[in-house]
Here is the input.
Amino acid sequence: METNNIISIRNEKNYWIATVSFFSVLLLVPVAYVISGLFISGGDNWAHLKEHLLQDYVLNTLLLVLFTGLFSLLFGVVPAWLVARYQFPGKKIFSLLLILPLSVPSYIMAFVYGGFFNVYGTLHFFLLDFFPDISYQLDMKNWLGLSFVMGLALFPYVYLILYSSFKIQQETLIEAAQTLGAKPAEVFYKIALPLARPALAGALFLVTMEVLNDYGAASYFGIKTLTTGIFRTWFSLGDIQTAVKLASNLLLVTLFFYFLEKVLQSARKYSSSRTQKKRSHEHKLRGKNALLAFVVCSIPVFLGILLPLFQLIFWALQSEAGFESSGLVFNSALLAFLVAIICLIIAFINAFSNHYFKNFWTSAVVRLSSIGYAIPGAIIAIGVLAPLLWLDNHYGWNTGLLINGSIFALTYACVIRFFAVSYNALDGVMEKMPQAYPDACKLSGVNSLKAFFKIYLPLSKGGLIAGGILVFLDVLKELPLTLILRPFDFNTLATNAFELASDEALRQAALPALCIVAMGSLALLFVRSIIKNSEI
Here is the structure.
């Protein structure tokens, strides 16, 4: 009887491993295709691109990564410290508002600031009421202006991760420093910030990946980056081979940052395990210190969410053009819903297999298949589309509209890109489940399928909802994948807003942009509420 039970468990394990491996192959094939681009020669335009453009692409991309990181630190670090460690007027509302800039995609932030500060923009319009003779020119459309607006869109990554790190730092170290006479600023710079270094590196990794993924903001500001170069080579020159070559080089850079972050993440886990002995408590600020904390937190909130919202509402009220709201919202919601459901199904199967059977192979392939989130959308799009075109050109396998011209390719690419978001949410929930669950099921003869539906599914409800909403939000904002892979006559809120803004129809672009921001803000607040209540 016991032998039969062991054989049954072994067979079940093999089925689950085979399923996980199958999903991993599907998620990794496009990535593997792009990597193969390293070993092929470039197309007709590769030599020209390498001699005249590649240096600008690389330099601009590095400048954007560096300065966007600096602006993200400027807007995110100190507010995270203040909200995590102190009580002051407005703290509760700041803890909500400081995450909302995540609902404003960088391309929307770019055309909001571009329109606000240009010669005949909103700022000029308001100033003329008070200073009729005023004349000024502030050109935001350069790499420094782009770094600034991307820093505003991305600083919540720094804020959220640093806030968690500051919250769990060992209180005794800080108390000892204060006892020895250290001032609050010295405690922050000499104790808290060095302890948060691994978390800081993780946050900067996320910012870097978003900068490498960006196409819309850089394109609107006219900055040549590696990602805009891939688009130009693909669409303007029609040179697929050179686009693949360029994408493979960008992928190499991305993978370097990805594996570097994994190493630093291990250090962060070690650091956390050593510092969770005593949670911090909050100190109350009074007088000018409370006022200073209020001002410091107000600046990123005003620049990151209030000013963009004011500008979008102002334009929307001035717009006289119609808005195909129902069709755009339906397309965006349909795509986001499809991707979220598929991601959750695959992520739940993978997370369950990893937790229930615990073996090296499952853990390795699951982690590897999560790599898509670190890869820019333009690279994934090429990895999905180029093999189909290659088959068509070399063997006459006409994949036609059934794949290339339908929502299939777009959904597939989005699943590759955002699978990790849903998996991390579910993996976090399952890590908190005791090992006694799978052990009890195996000993009592309960098969894994029953455990999957009767035990793990109900217990993972919070992670499923949070993961699904986060994927939904990411797909809603996604631009590069949608621009390249969307079917004919299939527009989403993101593509509509970007195309209108690119044509300088900013008033018309405001309405779809407002829809994205509103839906994104609601989703973020809902996820925050779930996480807070369930302490995921």
Q: What stands out?
A: Residues 273-277 have pLDDT under 50 and may be disordered. The CA atoms of residues 12 and 449 lie 9 Å apart. The chain is about 80% helix and 0% strand. The two ends are 40 Å apart (CA to CA).
